[in-house]
What does this fold into?
Amino acid sequence: MNSNILIAGVCTPLFGAFLLVLLGKINQKLRNACSLAFVGVSLCCAVAALVSLLNGNVLAAGPWEFPLGLTFGFRADALAVFMALTACVVSMIIIIYSYGYIKEYPNQNEYYMMVTLFIGAMTGLVYSTNLIMIYIFWEISSLCCWRLIGFYREEMMIRRADKAFVVTVLGALVMLIGFMGVYGEYGTFDLNVLSGRSIPSWCVWCILCGILSKSATFPLHSWLPDAGVAPSPVTSLLHAAVLVKIGVFAYVRLFVKCFEVDEIFTTAVPVIAAVSALVSAGAALKANDIKRVVAYSTISQLAFILLGLSCGNEVGTVGGLLYILAHSVAKGGLFLCCGIVEHAVHTKDMSKISGMIKTMPKTAVAFILCALSVMGIPPFSGFFAKYLVIEAIVQTGQLWIAAVFIVGAVMTVMYLVRLFVKVFLGKPSFPKAKEGSPVMVASVLLLGVLALVLGFVIAAPTQLAMEVI
Amino acid sequence: MNMLNLTVHAMLALPLVVLAANNLLAKQTARKIALYVCAAVAFFQIASSVTLFVMYTRYGITHYDFNIFDPGQVSADYFSVNRLDLFLMVCIGIVVFVSVMLALETIKDHKRSYVNLLMCLLLGMNGMVMATDLFSLYVFLEIVGITSFVMIAMFRSKVGLEGSFKYLVVSSLGIVLLLSGLALIFMQTGTLDFKAIGESLLDTQDSSRRALTYSAVVLMISGFAVKAGAVPFHSWLPDAHQSADTAVSVLLSGIVIKIAGIYGLIVVLDLFGSLEAVRIIYQVIGLVSTITGAVLAARQHHFKRIAAYSSVSQMGYIILALSSGTTLGVVGAAAHIFSHAIFKSTLFSNAAAIHEEVGVLDVTKLGGLEKKMPITAFSSVIAFLSTAGVPPFCGFWSKLLIVIALWKSGDTVWAGAALAASIFTAVYFLRLQRKVFFGKLADGMQDVREAKNSIGFIEAALTAVTVGAGLLFPFALQYLQTAGII
Amino acid sequence: MENIIIYVSLAALLVCGVLAVMLRSIIKDAICLAAASAALAIIMYTLGAPWAALFEVSVCAGLITVIFISGISLSHDTKAEVRREYDDKRRMGVLPVVLVVAGIVMIGAGAAIHFEMPVAQRLVQDFREVFWNSRQADIWGQIIVMLTGGTAISVLIKEEKKKS
It folds into this structure.
């Protein structure tokens, strides 16, 4: 019974995705509903796992032993449940948003199939207990990303999709070399067996390559802003809320929970994160495309998350996890708002858009809510997360990194305010532009409110995050 | 045992019966049923090989020796079937089946000629894997060679004859090298039997004899490398593939270069694998082929040339697997032979579909075909992902096996280089996808329709095999472990 | 004495082989091929392989030349020549030079390395015994090779029959 819940949670979206193509040929509304339903099943399974976890019982499936160290299995520990809940909730809202956004474009069947497949891969990844399983789901998510970025089928967009694929897959291949190094040392890929072992530093560097490429950290970050050519729900789902969290999740799963790594990494990784945060914040200040600004912001915030997780102390881990939650909700909402604006005025150039608050007030409200969370203003959830991360880095004594991050946080405020002022305030340049469809507006408002509400009930996620350590 | 004897004899004789029937029956009848009979023969080969493999595992048989004429006794030069041979025969059967499916649509006028040559080719390949003597290996290798040349030139077009001639010349060079190697071995041992060679040649302190043995080994490896299309002997592959009909290209890339070339390299590894030099040569050839093939593929314009260079690259992986020198390495190589047969067949099926429906294979002129040819596009994406080693398809698993085998035998740097080189595969395939399927519909493609019957069927079937083999691969590994192979 | 015969035959083999490739008239090419086979047969006999020499002379120098010449006369074109575009005297002229240089290099290398040739073992069994009993796989191989060769030729010349 226990194991079936986990298997159902992973396999329903994973295999159900292919069913969607057939359903789409019969009835579009049915397909849309089923897509949401499959992800809903995953969410229910995650909730069931949470309930079970709070009762002290960790759900697990397997382990199924195969030769050559390939012992597969699923395990819903606190970290997995935390990530699964975050991913499923945000994904469901984004799928609802898609109903409004995608309905006038071709290739819808493939869209829903890839989105659902991606959620399946994400759930599989967080529950996996084997390095090769993690790799398999990692690559499936790269594949979905490739197809989804190229949704509009323009040549330039396909090139961008190819670039994203190449960068993330190359990072993953180097990561696989790192996994092979672990296998060479211990003869297995099973995380249950490898728990607490120390691995050579070169393996850690290789695995870091994969993590940095997937979570768009400097210098492997350039694919993310370019991927803004995708439809907005895609950008929101993949490049803000879920896909880019795979890298930082892997960091926690492997280097915080499982392996013992050399001390040097508690300095090296925060430095890399610091550079990434500064560079991307600077780029966000100068960018003129609304989605590029938000994309650079994502890179910057991911650096924050990585910083928190790599501090090596408990405060940092909890802070990082909370930040994952807060950022997924808020940044997902920001991208969706940009999508509504773009849908209405058909351009992403900031210099051409202004005064949208007059014609789309609800979107503006949602935007403000999400942006305040990202900026880290109390009582939004983002504030608590940012505070914990900075406290963590101060605890390690590397004050100059803390200083860099505070600078980064200030720059976050600056570019987000700049974006809002330019796009929403001022004289309306598109007086006839209408508000987005009800479904779309409802989704973004829901995310914005969620960002605020989470701040009030921050104790609950914090408790779950503390179970992780 | 009787059924076993009958089956292995059938592998060597049934195609001959079909060959005779094809030529003796009335022309009209022969033309109608010939291809279907070929498909049946291929299917029989797959089914019986799988059955025999399971039987071997069940009863603990490792190999079965038999004589072609006197069933009871086993003379000096006989045939032997072990499990690797059975596995290779399954691959042969699969690719021949795919080729027949493609030929149903693409070959309109020369059906009987095609069937004749195909049956000879099948006989040659079966004989090669079952041979136990280097000279018999050579004889059957020549059969494979002759049929390949003529199949490429079958339609007697200028480009066909030229491609075939290029293949003929380069292949003759390879044969000369191979025969020189055989001569050097025979000079020392007086026999070319597999069993007798290995033991007697290697344990000698005489430096001139060692020099002769090393020369023989290098010559043999060069000869087989020519046949396998490994760098630096790969120049014939693209022209041969491009100028042949797609049904023939599938055979060439899908199985001929493997049986004629890679199997020969496996034999050399079997006999002389304890020499460090052999492993080093395989490593170098393997890695260089992998990278060169992939880099060159990224610049090609013709669909089939991209596929040909891709084959060069994948042969590099297989040779790298062999260089580990362990059983796991050979298993990895065999798995990759299977994966490559499947995804390369899919790719060539796509080429056949595009050629039949659109008429042009220049990728710069194609574009956005996925709207019009969804099955072809879907199968090409699956084939691309399998080739690039993206999970969960069988190409990923076979590559992982190769990397694990190399890592376990201590060649960690080579394994890492092989893994990193996978990205080149992804690059040229992404280009192919972008130019042909994944984009906006090109001009003049409005009336293109989906691939016809047998081509569409085989694309779907091969995709199903890729996905199925990928999902079930860990179970296959478990089966191999219980069978005592890994 | 034996060595002289072998060296002269080798030289004849080389010269006839190069001529067979370089001459433009196809009949002359076939005749040079026959002469090369004959030279090879002499070498084989001198080295102690009478059966091989017999087969070489009867099949290569005899049967194949007959087939070539009948094929050429059946096409009613006794002046058959290699097409102009494939005849590049400048590039072909390099061939003999390369062969001579390669030969000198190989002889020099052979003299420099000084290895002892192992003594070849004489066959203890009669050739016929070996051929029919010990090498059954090869018999099967030979049968298939002949069938394949026949099939290949018939496929290649099929077009001719249809046209004429």
Remarks:
- Chains C and A do not touch (no CB pair under 8 Å).
- The two ends of chain C are 55 Å apart (CA to CA).
